[in-house]
Design a protein that fits this description.
about 325 residues, about 25% strand, 14 strands, single chain, nine-stranded mixed β-sheet, Jelly Rolls, alpha+beta
Length: about 325
């Protein structure tokens, strides 16, 4: 894939225990060089895969994790079958120490199967790990996860939460696209996805520009960086990101958080409901509802309900936990008709 990327701003010398709140709310990606280089995990990962495994095993529980496995001919790309009716991988429940030992055994293989333990809760499966390997995100209460595997490729996708991804073993190439590149990335099914999020159907290792011609425009907006152990990257909410592990053994630790109250629902649920109730309306009605959403949602401000007494504004008033609970109950009642 030929890319002439716009560079990502790089920051150095940051302290993991004192990240600027302005950085954590950034709408632009940032490379955080050496942010977690002081972590014992990153230091072990920089020395060797064996040292990284030895360190992780200090914390690993014996209960199985979900390991995703694809045949060598997948090229490490966890994806669909040719007809997009199934996936090219299988999932097994295996104790984490067994996965780690298996990855070590495959280090010298020319064409090993692709093995991936993705999005595994650190607090659940590696208790005690965060005592010496953690970021302080201030008021945010992030979900901390670990990702372990060999040479794997995760198709470009979006996440609703903001994300700081920290490489602690191996190397990663991260390719980012702004949210505006949605139509140029040729996104697959919303309801049958490899790992929960809809993904780009383009193979970044060999893009087919005859089948996906607008991907050439997406590449004009791509931002690419390679990360070593100790480096991190801030991926803002809804930025498309393609993750490629470049070494025979790789570990990534990431933190997800949202810049919204916990009572707020996922915008993806609103999209699903809009597909159900708006998309297939006659064009004139669909236009009307576009104006309704513009007025009540996308351009809403203090004037939207200013003509109503404050006590009578109901759902047009500020959202809070109580009102969100009432609205959710009302929606459930309507959906369960």
């Amino acid at each position: 894939m030929h890319v002439s990327p716009e560079p990502i701003v790089e920051l150095r010398g940051l302290e993991a225990g004192a990240l600027d709140p302005a950085l954590l709310s950034s709408s632009e990606p940032r490379v955080l060089r050496g942010l977690v280089a002081h972590w014992p995990m990153a230091q072990a990962g920089a020395r060797s895969p064996a040292d990284a495994v030895d360190y992780l095993k200090r914390f690993a529980r014996a209960e199985p994790v979900v390991a995703t496995v694809a045949a060598p001919e997948s090229g490490g790309r966890f994806f669909y079958t040719a007809d997009v009716q199934a996936f090219n991988f299988r999932q097994e429940r295996v104790p984490l120490p067994v996965v780690l030992d298996t990855l070590l055994r495959y280090l010298d293989e020319d064409a090993p199967p692709a093995i991936y333990v993705g999005s595994t809760s650190i607090d659940t499966w590696l208790p005690g790990f965060r005592a010496d390997n953690d970021l302080d995100l201030g008021a945010h209460d992030p979900l901390a996860s670990i990702w372990i595997g060999n040479r794997t490729r995760i198709a470009a996708h979006q996440d609703v939460p903001d994300n700081i991804a920290c490489v602690v073993a191996g190397r990663r190439r991260v390719t980012l696209f702004p949210p505006s590149q949605l139509e140029n990335l040729y996104i697959g099914p919303l309801d049958r996805t490899p790992a929960g999020q809809a993904v780009s159907m383009v193979d970044f290792a060999d893009p087919d520009l005859q089948r996906f011609p607008r991907f050439a425009e997406a590449l004009r907006h791509a931002r690419v960086v390679e990360l070593e152990p100790g480096d991190a990257i801030l991926i803002p909410s809804m930025w498309w990101h393609h993750m490629e592990a470049l070494a025979e053994f790789n570990i990534l630790v990431n933190y997800w958080w949202r810049q919204s109250p916990a009572y707020m629902d996922s915008p993806m649920n609103a999209l699903m409901l809009a597909l159900l109730s708006i998309r297939d309306l006659p064009p004139a009605q669909r236009q009307t509802w576009q104006d309704v959403f513009r007025h009540y949602v996308f351009e809403a401000d203090d004037s939207t309900a200013a003509h109503l007494p404050e006590a009578a504004r109901g759902l047009l008033g500020p959202m809070d936990e109580t009102r969100a609970r009432e609205l959710r109950a009302r929606l459930l009642q309507r959906l369960n008709r």
